[in-house]
Amino acid sequence: GMNRADLILLDHEMPVTSGPKVLEMLRSDDSTKSIPVMFLTGKSDKESVMEVVSLRPEGYFLKSIQREELLEKLSEFFTTHR
């Protein structure tokens, strides 16, 4: 539809459900499964990272990332996914 998101930025730690769960839900729904998802997380432990990477998000950033760097990566993404 017209209001499809171009990109979803998910936080790994969310109050109601975890980022990976949300990503699984998005992937299993036809209307949202093609929307690229990027993750922001404060967790760098191996299990969390593997859990996210196995869902093949478009990008994966640690929260310690500098704002400029994040914005740069996002604009890079939009340039390559026109």
Short structural description:
The protein is of the alpha/beta class. Helices cover 39% and strands 16% of the residues. The model has no long low-confidence stretch (mean pLDDT 85).
List keywords for this structure.
about 15% strand, three-stranded parallel beta sheet, alpha/beta, 3 helices, about 80 residues
Strand percentage, roughly? 15-25%
The poorly predicted ranges are none
Helix-residue proportion:
25-40%
Q: What order do the helices and strands follow?
A: EHEHEH
Mean pLDDT across the residues is: 85
Tally of helical segments: 3
- Strand line-up in the sheet with most strands: 1-2-3
Shape, per Cα inertia axes: globular
Number of strands: 3
Specify the structural class.
alpha/beta
Largest sheet: 3 strands, parallel
Cα gyration radius (Å) = 13 Å
Walkthrough of the structure:
The protein is an alpha/beta fold. The chain has three helices and three strands. The longest helix has 14 residues. The radius of gyration is 13 Å and the shape is globular. The model has no long low-confidence stretch (mean pLDDT 85).
What's the structural blueprint in terms of helices and strands?
Elements: E1 8-11, H1 19-28, E2 37-41, H2 46-53, E3 59-62, H3 67-80
Parallel strand pairs: 1-2, 2-3
